[in-house]
Amino acid sequence: MVLDIHTGFCWVPPGKSKHALPILLDDVARDFPGLKIVAFHMGYPYCDDLNMVAMGHPNVHVCLSLLVPWALSAPRKFAKIIGEALRWVGPERIIWGTDYAGFGVQIGAAVRGLRDFQIPEDMRVGYGYPEISDDDRRKMFGGNLAALIGIGTERRVAS
After folding, report:
1. Which of 25, 44, 54, 121 lies at a C-alpha separation of 20 to 30 Å from 16?
2. What are the tens digits of pLDDT across the range 11-48?
3. DSSP string computed for 16-79
């Protein structure tokens, strides 16, 4: 079973941010180690908290939903978010996502945001962030989610 859950600040009423803090996943992940958890929005603005929870629990996966377009509009901010996740969680538990209702331009920006993005060299050197490899992109763009829900990626099917 996979639990998809909103993490981070909740800016849409009637949601309450106090119920979406990433640290709350620590007990859930510990009490239910067989439960696969996908934490949406990287816990923003509490990304570091989510990374620490995920580092300690292999059943917690982090999702880039909502944040990927920042690769185009705020690349250094996005570089820090994904760089920290790569460092602490690893590329095997990062999942790409859009969190959009289907607006083509937004989804396109989210695809370009990860497809073309690279952490700037000065941040890789200064903070020790890894370079995003083609293999990392394959994992994040669907390989990780496919493995999580138990489907193959050998064949692409269009409807």
Report:
1. 54
2. 877 888 999 999 999 999 999 999 999 999 999 999 99
3. -GGGS-GGGHHHHHHH-TTSEEEEEGGGTT-HHHHHHHHHH-TTEEEE-TTTTTHHHHSHHHHH
- Each domain of the chain, given as residue ranges in start order, spans 2-149
What is the fold of 2-149? TIM Barrel (3.20.20)
Backbone dihedral angles phi then psi of residue 94, each to the nearest 5 degrees: -110, 130
The answer to whether the CB of 59 falls within 8 A of the CB of 1 is: no
3-state secondary structure of 142: helix
| Residues 67, 44 contacting (CB under 8 angstroms) | yes
Distance between CA atoms of residues 87 and 134, nearest Å: 17
